[in-house]
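Predict the structure of Glyoxalase.
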Amino acid sequence: MTNIASLTLEVADTAAAEQFYSAAFGLDSRLRLRASEAATSGFRGFTLSLVVAQPAEVDSLVGSAVEAGATVLKPAAKSLWGYGGVVQAPDGTIWKVATSAKKNTGPATRRIDEVVLLLGVADISATRKFYVEQGLTVAKSFGRMYVEFAAGAGSVKLGLYRRRALAKDAGVSPDGSGSHRLAIGGSGAPFTDPDGFAWEAAAPVAAS
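Done. Here is the predicted structure for Glyoxalase.
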């Protein structure tokens, strides 16, 4: 099965981005950065979600992201499905921090339970079929609305949304063009999906 071992964000200033992500989320080796001046405008067609255990974690992570320079797209709030908020990092990447819980059970630990990459695609059925042919296994499917693939332990989870629905969930316009400014580090051979998202062989994690 193909797994997402890491995600590489292409940013204009790697030092500034490293400082932001360390202060905002304290992410581990699943997130990498590399310099790029690739042209892009508007919505890049994807969002990243941090799934946590309780509202206190959402507030802590959203708060530290804003303090580090993020812009709030959707303030943290309760909804039918739980509690969450959306911010945009200084490099332009959109992050959603969410939990299915509506009440706290203890103090915030800032532990991130899952990292989820959501791709906004033109044709859910066609892209789902493409990824199944690449070796991914469907874990959840809601027709032409949403597809989620199974992920190995410690890997990034992948989901597919319709582009307009994903942009609406993030609180931005669906319009955008140019580079996605994202490279997906997989466990298999490199490929590019129908919506132009590029997968590459994940580089080994450097020893500390």
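The CA atoms of residues 139 and 149 lie 5 Å apart.
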